[in-house]
Specification:
Rossmann fold, 2 domains, 8-stranded mixed β-sheet, binds 1,4-dihydronicotinamide adenine dinucleotide, binds 1,3-dihydroxyacetonephosphate, cytoplasm, glycerol-3-phosphate dehydrogenase (NAD+) activity, NAD binding
Length: 326
């Protein structure tokens, strides 16, 4: 049994807290929203009425309380809020497992890089893969990957999460696992747009495949291993989010394709949509590193308010015919 602090009582932080408490761990959740904290304190999860909340979960609005309590910290905050939220705390010597998926807009950094800037001696791992919060909360079968640099810590954290319905594979490619979970959100938006425009199943399959190729091109330039993108945190999560209306990123794209403005789509969803921010960093990185990223550029232009049909046509018509792999 371990004491696990969870930073962020949103859907993902809460689903993982439910799972960890079911494994017999003591969980303390931190969130800025008092209604989330009060609900968890009453023994009710704030999001899913049909999911029982096990004993072993407490919650607080005091960040330092969670840091002091935890043997392992699980980070499930929206990526753009991480630096500000953690700027005054000392995480040196802590094991931090990031479950957030995205890049910081201002710096284009991954979450582990942000954490290392804040506390250079913390040990960061990343938990990622195809895992909608609601399904994990309900205890439905799920497989994810845990990446990090220290074998012993990976095995320890794997043992905390592992259950018959929550399989955790290990990887030493932290860069690749973080990038897979971040970049797939941008491709999921593109697939949603395509479906919203009524382009059909062929178009979505093409976008997933070419989107994966784009993720690999950028990922390799940033130091990731190619094979990681064909695993759970890459293709696995891409297939999940790019084909399901449970995905906020896909839904955002779908609404844009149906003619909603960005602000009306975001308001309708009412939850964090990481791809909207990550695409800014992706476009910047692809320019700096001279990587072809036509799908990300198309998403970027859409988010600037350009007409979806026009952007889609340009995406299809602009590139001259070329080989599939070159
Ligand atoms: N929902 C899902 O199925 C999955 C989400 N993720 C990732 O998890 C991260 C969080 O997503 P969700 O939990 O779904 O978002 P959400 O929109 O359900 O909740 C976000 C939570 O963060 C809290 N928050 C925001 N700023 C904060 C701060 N400064 N301090 C404390 N709390 C703060 C909010 O009060 C809210 O409760 C994202 O990076 C997302 O990509 C990853 C896998 C699955
Ligand atoms: O990453 C996710 C599932 O693995 C959740 O995706 P969305 O943030 O698009 O809902």
């Amino acid at each position: 049994m371990a004491r696990i602090g969870v930073l962020g009582g949103g859907r993902w932080g809460t689903a993982l807290s439910l799972h960890l408490a079911r494994q017999g761990h003591q969980v303390l959740v931190f969130d800025i929203k008092s209604e989330v904290v009060e609900s968890l304190r009453r023994g009710q999860n704030p999001y899913w009425e049909d999911v029982d909340t096990p004993k072993g979960i407490d919650a607080t609005t005091e960040l330092l309380e969670v840091i002091g309590f935890s043997q392992v910290l699980l980070l499930a905050l929206p990526v753009q809020s991480i630096r500000e939220a953690l700027k005054d705390v000392d995480l040196n010597g802590k094991k931090v497992v990031s479950a957030s998926k995205g890049l910081e807009v201002e710096t284009s950094l991954r979450v582990s890089q942000i954490l290392k800037e804040i506390s250079p001696h913390c040990e960061v791992m990343c938990l990622s893969g195809p895992s909608f919060a609601r399904e994990v909360a309900k205890g439905l079968p799920t497989a994810v990957v845990l990446a990090g640099e220290e074998e012993e810590s990976l095995r320890y954290v794997q043992s905390l999460f592992f259950s018959p319905y929550f399989r955790v594979y290990l990887s030493t490619d932290l860069v690749g696992v973080e990038l897979g979970g971040s970049l797939k959100n941008v491709v999921a938006i593109a697939c949603g747009v395509s479906d919203g425009l009524g382009f059909g199943d062929n178009a979505r399959a093409a976008l997933i495949t070419r989107g994966l190729a784009e993720m690999v091109r950028l990922g390799e330039k940033l130091g990731a291993k190619r094979e990681t993108f064909y695993g759970l945190s890459g293709l696995g999560d891409l297939v999940l989010t790019a084909t399901s209306s449970q995905s906020r990123n896909y839904t955002l794209g779908y609404l844009l394709g149906k003619g909603h403005s960005l602000s009306s789509a975001l308001e309708k969803i009412g939850q964090v949509v990481e791809g909207v921010h990550t695409v800014m960093a992706v476009v910047k990185l692809s320019q700096e590193l001279d990587v072809r990223a036509p799908i990300s550029y198309a998403v970027y232009r859409l988010l600037q308010g350009e007409d979806p049909l026009q952007v889609a046509h340009q995406l299809l018509m602009n590139p001259p015919p070329h080989r599939e792999f070159e």
